[in-house]
Write a structure and sequence with these properties.
about 260 residues; alpha/beta; Rossmann fold; 8-stranded mixed beta sheet; two-stranded antiparallel ribbon; 10 helices; 10 strands; globular; binds S-adenosylmethionine
């Protein structure tokens, strides 16, 4: 309850501070806002993915939830419809992820938290030459996600990897030459989030992009974000209230941008 009140104050503060493309003096951030954040183009694949989301939202299939991160505190049963309603990124943010992938053409891309595959399909469909490695600890969710990837024909662009991030992420990183793009959307705890960023950082370069979801999902996630926006490894950070984006860009003065979305 207390966190919800604090969140409301945070949101009011965000609305007061958030700028549009015209309030930013950085050409890079202006271009990001103009060509990516506020672009509203549609792609036929969005329709296919949203049809899959609708199916998921109606599916009574039961899923055993495992103790993997901050949400799944104990094992229990849920249904695909409940999971689709609560865990999958909504279309506004999922389309933004697609546009980021389309605009910056990353090749080696990672997603932590496949769930039913909704955000993975949005990201993979934006990639030109890139490949998305998506990690998930729940085998039943991954089975459904893999089926969805086949349905949209995106399976060629996606490799799904089962296992706890603690083991699967270091193993994947040891096999990739670099990470151009990472979307962190699982195990929303402060220490775990900072640890995953540190691991991914080892394969980052000046043009890598790291995206953190749910930066105001809890006090812990907000703390993690505030640590990362001050982190000298990332010269550009963009706060969209629910999502935080980190760019390395050493050539740029370090600055945090709060943008209206
Ligand atoms: C919020 S959901 C991801 C939603 C998905 N990115 C989307 O928008 O469609 C987070 C997922 O991360 C998985 N997860 C959480 N902690 C994990 C961990 N430590 N290892 C592996 N998977 C984990 C959960 O099982 C869950 O499916």
């Amino acid at each position: 309850m207390l966190y919800k009140v604090a969140l409301l104050f945070d949101y009011i503060k965000y609305l007061l501070l958030a700028k549009t493309r015209h309030g930013t003096h950085s050409p890079f951030v202006y271009a990001f806002a103009d060509r990516v954040l506020y672009q509203k183009y549609e792609n036929p694949v969005f329709y296919d993915i949203e049809l899959i989301r609708q199916k998921m939202l109606q599916s009574p299939t039961k899923v055993n939830m495992l103790d993997l991160g901050a949400v799944e505190k104990k094992t229990y049963q849920s249904t695909v419809q409940k999971i689709a309603a609560s865990a999958a990124k909504n279309s506004k943010y999922a389309k933004l992820l697609h546009r980021i992938c389309a605009a910056y053409s990353p090749e080696y891309c990672i997603e932590l938290g496949t769930n039913l595959g909704i955000s993975a399909m949005y990201q993979a469909s934006g990639l030109q030459n890139g490949h998305l490695y998506t990690l998930e600890g729940n085998p039943k969710l991954l089975e459904i996600a893999n089926y969805n990837f086949e349905k949209t024909g995106l399976q060629e662009k996606i490799t799904s990897i089962e296992g706890n991030f603690d083991q699967s992420l270091p193993l994947l990183l040891s096999q990739l030459p670099r990470v151009d793009y990472a979307f962190i959307d699982g195990n929303h705890r402060k220490d775990a989030t900072l640890h995953y960023v540190d691991l991914i950082w080892q394969k980052c370069h000046n043009h890598s992009i790291l995206i953190l979801d749910d930066i105001r999902w809890s006090g812990e996630m907000e703390e993690a974000w505030h640590i990362l926006e001050k982190d000298s490894r990332f010269h550009v950070s963009i706060d969209l209230f629910m999502v935080g984006i980190l760019f390395v860009r050493k050539e740029q003065e370090k600055e945090n941008f709060i943008l209206r979305f």
